[in-house]
Design brief:
The protein is an alpha/beta fold and 356 residues long. It has a single domain, classed as Alpha-Beta Barrel (TIM Barrel). Helices cover 35% and strands 12% of the residues. It is built from 13 helices and nine strands. Strands 7-6-5-4-3-2-1-8-9 form a nine-stranded mixed sheet. α3 packs across α5. The longest helix has 15 residues. It is globular and about 60 Å long. 48% of the residues are buried. Bound molecules: iron/sulfur cluster (SF4). Iron/sulfur cluster (SF4) binds next to α8 and α11.
């Protein structure tokens, strides 16, 4: 188990916010034009060298659409030449060509991640708000499979697609993706509270994912649903610990990871955030040390201190394994240490306090 007080497991760099899609739930509220304040190529190289000083974190290039940066391939090459395990998450637009996918592979990208939010063009393109996105996504996944580049499918669960997850999973299986990364909504950017699931819906989706994980050909991980770990722990206990749960995988998240805890996000302008969904800046790589900020900034220290969690999360026996989504707590209450409002679990101590 890594020491998340010293180094993140995942470093996400939003290389640009520019994107030709206009997704309904976009965290970055992305727009087609690039921001002139983006980190330059040289600043990007320095950032990657700094990331390497953490050891061996997983380096993720995200956006916006990373392919909107003409220097993307140089940055990726720098990352892989530093021996950083590197993942790229391009948007499914005409920029995502067979040539671009082949270049990712040639440069040593470990995995390409693309988003799939519906099982057919109508549902997916409706979400992404650009016709042809579904077909481009499928093309990219099949092309990567053809040339032997590992892939990951990212799906954001909302009330619009939650009943179609099995159809999406069938596609994940068919294209041979290694990982299905299931995102749960945090209402920042363009995402709406009315699109989110109820706490009971979360449990139902967790049950579906857990059962699927027992026999799927791909690994499953959740993003911004830390309480899935509590669900899995409860199920495994109930099942006597003998049944295979979500398979361990070096690229999958490790237990206990949370916003600012094993995780750091660098914005296109160099701001250092605990997560892309928790837009509180602890500094900027242009004038602060990323390593110092991650290890010592009051914001990151507080986020890693489960003793400071509020409400039922603060007394929950799963708080070190789970801790609830700090991003969602902030989005829904304005307090990033508040309890997770989408968790049905009532910790034993909270029950005692409630019922006297
Ligand atoms: S109460 Fe909080 S810490 Fe406990 S399982 Fe739910 S979200 Fe996690």
């Amino acid at each position: 188990m890594m020491n998340f007080d010293q180094a993140p497991f995942l470093v996400i760099w939003e290389v640009t916010q520019a994107c030709d899609l206009a997704c309904a739930h976009c965290r970055a509220s992305a727009a087609p034009a690039r921001d002139p304040r983006e980190l330059s190529t040289e600043e990007g190289y320095r950032l990657l060298e700094t990331v390497k000083t953490f050891g061996d974190p997983l380096m993720v290039f995200t956006g916006g659409d990373p392919l909107k940066r003409p220097d993307l391939f140089s940055l990726v090459e720098k990352s892989t030449s530093l021996d950083l395990r590197t993942t790229v998450t391009p948007s499914a637009t005409p920029l995502l060509t067979a040539e671009a996918i082949a270049r990712f592979q040639k440069l040593g990208v470990a995995r390409m991640a693309v988003s799939l939010d519906g099982p057919d063009p109508q549902s997916h393109d409706g979400f992404r708000r650009v016709a042809g996105s579904f077909d481009r996504t499928l093309f990219a996944l099949e092309e990567a499979k053809r040339i032997g580049l590992d892939t990951q499918v990212n799906t954001t669960v909302t009330r619009h697609n939650r009943r179609r997850l099995d159809e999406i999973a069938a596609i994940v299986e068919r294209v041979g993706a290694k990982l299905w990364s299931v995102f749960f909504l945090v209402t920042t950017g363009r995402a709406l509270v009315s699109d989110d699931l109820t706490p009971e819906d979360y449990e139902q989706v967790f049950a579906y994912l857990y059962e699927l994980s027992k026999h799927s050909s791909f690994d499953i991980k959740t993003t911004e649903a830390q309480h899935y770990r509590r669900f899995v722990a409860q199920r495994r206990k109930a099942e006597g610990g003998a049944v295979r749960g979500p398979a361990p995988n070096p690229i999958a998240r490790q237990a206990g990871i949370n916003d600012g805890k094993g995780f750091v996000f660098i914005s296109h302008r160099g701001e250092i955030f605990p997560s892309g969904f928790l837009p509180i800046s602890a500094g900027n790589v242009r004038h602060d040390s990323l390593v110092d900020i991650y290890r010592h900034s009051p914001l990151f220290l507080e986020l890693r201190n489960s003793g400071k969690l509020g409400g039922k999360c603060g007394v929950c026996e799963y708080r070190n394994l789970c801790g609830g989504s700090r991003s969602r707590a902030f989005a829904l209450t304005g307090d990033y240490m508040a309890e997770e409002l989408r968790c049905v679990y009532q910790p034993a101590e909270a029950k005692v306090a409630l019922h006297g």
